[in-house]
Amino acid sequence: MPKVLTSLSTSLGYYPAQLKISDTSGWRIVYYVENPNKKGQMKRFVVKVNRIKNKNERRRYANNLIKEINHRLQNGLNPLLLEQASTALKKLPPQTEHLNNSINALINIINQQNEVLDDSAQLTMHECFKSIDSKLRRELSPESYKDYCTPINGLKKYLVENEIDQVPANQFDQKKAMNWLYTYGDLNELSNNGINQLKIKASAMMSRVVDEGLIKTNPFFGIKKLKEEEREINLWDLDDLKKFLKFTKENHPNFYIGALMVLQVYIRPTELLRIRKEHLILNKGIVMVKVKKGVKYKTEPGSLSSELVEIISTIKYEMLPNDYLFSRDFNFGGKPLSKDVFNRTFKRIKEKLKFRKPNVKFYDLKHTGVTIMAEKGIPLQKIQKQCRHTSISTTEKYVGRLTRMADENYINFPEF
To answer: Which of 167, 183, 235, 257 lies 20 to 30 angstroms, CA to CA, from 397?
Structure first.
């Protein structure tokens, strides 16, 4: 987005106001203005759009407010220069009384935020995280809260290890943010794609800290996106697969259910953790999968094999209405299983069984399952539906890549 210069100064600029809509933060108008004391540094401002029952009216109100803010920005409004902003406002032609009141209220809020920033200049990053934690727990779904906790916990550890946990939060600049991002990525063997996703989460979390007035700028704002690589895909050795399924069925029956769901229903391990009793519609032979699409969650069906329907039927009968299918020790219960338990358990089983292909991952079961179906001649449209792909072209590229990796044994593997 290009920076626009204001008419009152040839050195100060802004990024125009835009409407942002999300399930977690609601309707917000976001814009940036240049800090007059630090050339090139942009400060983010957020205006929450009031709730209006009629969505079209709410959008019209938001668009009018955006138009008014941008008009005033063009005429020299910089909330970091409140005296100049007040002068500029008086010179503007009068708008509707409602919008004028909104803008004046915004200036008052900004003024209050600046006072808070002055008072909180010595807050550490730990104290900032503690301050927003209760709000995050209250406002976000458990899944979204966990997304925020990933960068928070990683950043806390980094601050302690580098003995900068007592440094004021405003001194955690873009250089330190980049250093943490790439250090965390190396330690956790993240790909460029993984680091980019971590940066998005960390930036969203730090924006909440900025919105609360605890720091002035988001240190992750402006960090360049890394070039993304094609995701690595591995197919299981079919002898390993048979051995693994036999072992888990006999020794870890609940883990076996999760493995079959990845292999046959193409469910991600993180999606397994969201399955509740209400999602298991066994009379139709389906499970409703809670899939994350951008910032939203969408529930889509996946077909269950007759074996899965039979196994889950006995479990569902004992489950309480709000129980998760996978809770402590892979049994059902009121709290979802921790995020990495499936992968850690799989790693132990893989080492015990001495796989011929030790580099495969638990999620590679999905790629293996899709390949088996494709090699058996299952139509692409059915594979697309089970994979929950939006576009058939996505399925074509995915299946094409898998079948080039498969050997002739896949066509002889027992059908699900």
So the answer is: 257
